[in-house]
Amino acid sequence: MKKIILLLLLVFALTKNYGQVHPASAIKPPAYLTGSFEDDYQIHYKINDTLWLQLPNTRFHIIKWNPDKMYLIAKNDAKNPGEGNLYTRIDYMTFDNMGAWKWGYCLTAYNAATDAIAEATAAADRDNPMKGCGGYPFSRMKRVK
Length: 145
Known about the structure:
Blueprint: H1 2-15, E1 35-39, E2 44-47, E3 51-54, E4 58-66, E5 71-76, E6 87-94, E7 103-112, H2 115-120, E8 139-143
Antiparallel strand pairs: 1-2, 1-8, 2-3, 3-4, 4-5, 5-6, 6-7, 7-8
């Protein structure tokens, strides 16, 4: 039964945008997601419309933004330390009353065989940011200069 449900979800994901082309450059990310950042583990990032760079050497090539549902889909760079040439779904959310920490993210999927499979992965639980990322907290992000 689980296999049938997964297959139906995959077919739905593959067909729902059939014939539509939405490159990353066609839909812009929210402004608060672009720039230079540091997470609460002291890891640094540079993010723009088409690239999510986790310093020093992990790159995600953004192929789709979905600002309404607060996620993006990316292809992992071939030279990444792990999961090269696979696909990632990054869910994000904003925070209130957390000082410099204005938003956070979750690698909902990071080793999907296709972009459609990554996108069909269930969204992170934004109602529970302390455990909503597969049992772990969202990584909190703050802007740096």
